[in-house]
Amino acid sequence: MSDERPILVHYGPSETSISQVSSLDTPTLRVPRVRASQPSVTKSASTVSWRDVRKQAFIAWIWTRLLLIAFTFATAFYEYTRGHHASLSSAAGLLELWYRFDTSAYLHMVYYGYATLYQAAFFPLYPLMIYLLTRVFGMGAALLIGLIISNLGTLVAFIGLVRLVVDEGGDLKASRFALLALAAYPMAFFLGAAYTEGPFIAAAVWCLWSMRRGRWYIAAGCALFAALVRPTGMILFAPLLYEFARQHDWGRRWRGAILQACAVTLAGPVGVGAYSLYCAVHYHDPLAWIHSESKAWGRVSMPIWQALHDTLTYIVSLRPLSAAQDKKLVDYFAILFVVVMTVALARRQPLSFTLYLAGLLYLTLDSPFVVSASHHYAVYLSASRYMLPSIPVFIGLGRWGARAPALAWACAIAAFAVQAVFAIYFLHGGWVA
Q: What is the pTM of this model?
């Protein structure tokens, strides 16, 4: 492991006495030199309380929810000027603006269950949570319940991100800019929609935090939750297994940790396996969720080099600088940004974070939407939204933002402006991602 890799304040449960530490091959802790321009006293991980963490996350959550409300009213006013008065006529009309695309698919499952192969691509936990709460509050509240679950998931994700930044050697300033980077990401308005982004990122960030702290049952529980929310949850398997093996000396200190090893190894596969079992019973096909992606959604798994060739061929075939090309390029810019950040952070972050990002990129690049098989045309549909769970990227941006706050705020304001355009377009019924 590189000497430059950040050293955790706490790697996990202590399994070695102080007298034994000198005999182990452990990296030397190097205290970073404090620049003159930096404050002489900062809150480190050991002094940042959970109250500070929750307060910072809650403030960010509140003002971003207010921003989403502003986007909603702006869309309603825009529709009003075009003669559509329903959105401004009532609170229900405003809520209906969020009844778009995947939201309608999830709510259809709440109302009628899994009915077609088309729906098998949607994993069950999110619509199940909505359904259970509709048994208390009524089916008429399904959309509102979905929005509440997603937004509360986002709050939990914000808290986890702050805690993770602080415990990975940052401070409250770095965590504040990490939150800003996540909130300003142009597709971050999906964290307020009745989509799975909020709950999934919450599970992923707490899984990363727990595995780095050696809290294996919490990490396994989060991985199981993520795997039941969406198939992307499997990207937590490799970093979780790596962290467990590393912290247990690559198998030489597994005595007494067999149950933890089982939980870590089986969490993700059990989640996917449980849904596959349901598909075997309901669709008579345990892989219906995979086949749904190709047959109903046009997403075909292929070698990445072929996917890159087919997607670039399609982009070049479109009229340069046309609206059609520009909308597709948004997804490519998002992928390129995460690739560049992954490479840039590789030596500055734990390997488990890099494995997480590599898994996210692989699942996105491996399954493009096939436009025309005969012409070898494909496109990375929704890739800009799929990059939203790139948690380590936002941690890196938070650290850089803390060192250059003026530039960070300028970039964030520009990103929020772009987000406003995409959000209003989405709420108006336009396909974004």
A: 0.88
Q: Which residue has the higher pLDDT, 80 or 404?
A: 404
The confidence score (pLDDT) of residue 251 equals 75
Phi and psi at residue 135, to the nearest 5°: -65, -20
Distance CA 268, CA 203 (A): 12
d(CA 358, CA 175): 23
Q: Give residue for tokens 């049952």.
A: 217
- Report angle CA 153, 155, 158 to the nearest 5 degrees: 110
The mean per-residue pLDDT over the stretch 229-241 comes to 96
Report how far residue 285's alpha carbon sits from residue 280's, in angstroms, rounded to the nearest whole number: 4
pLDDT digits (tens, 9 = 90+) for 281-339: 999 999 999 999 998 899 999 999 999 999 999 998 988 877 778 788 899 999 999 99
Residues 6+ apart with CB under 8 A from 115: 108, 109
* DSSP symbol at 141: G
Rounded to 5 degrees, what are φ and ψ at 48? Answer: -80, 120
Pick from 391, 405, 316: nearest CA to 39: 405
SS3 412: helix
Note the pLDDT of residue 45.
53
Torsion of CA 406, 408, 413, 417, to 10 degrees: 150
Dihedral sign for Cα 222, 223, 225, 226, please.
Answer: positive
For residue 195, give the nearest of 53, 5, 68 by alpha carbon. Answer: 68
Q: Report the candidate in 187, 118, 111 with the shortest Cα–Cα distance to residue 146.
A: 111
- Tens digit of pLDDT for each residue in 195-204? 999 999 999 9
Residue 371, classed as helix, strand or coil, is strand
| Burial (CB count within 10 angstroms: exposed 0-12, middle 13-18, buried 19+), residue 110 | buried
Place 86 in a pLDDT band, splitting at 50, 70 and 90.
confident
CA distance 49 to 161: 14
| H-type alpha helices, 82-215 | 86-89, 91-96, 102-112, 125-137, 142-167, 172-184, 197-213
Contacts of 220 (CB under 8 A, 6+ apart): 240, 263, 264, 266, 267
Mean pLDDT to the nearest integer, 232-250: 94
Tell me the residue type at 166: V
* pLDDT higher than threshold 50 for residue 28: no
Q: How many CA atoms lie within 13 A of 54 on its CB side?
A: 3
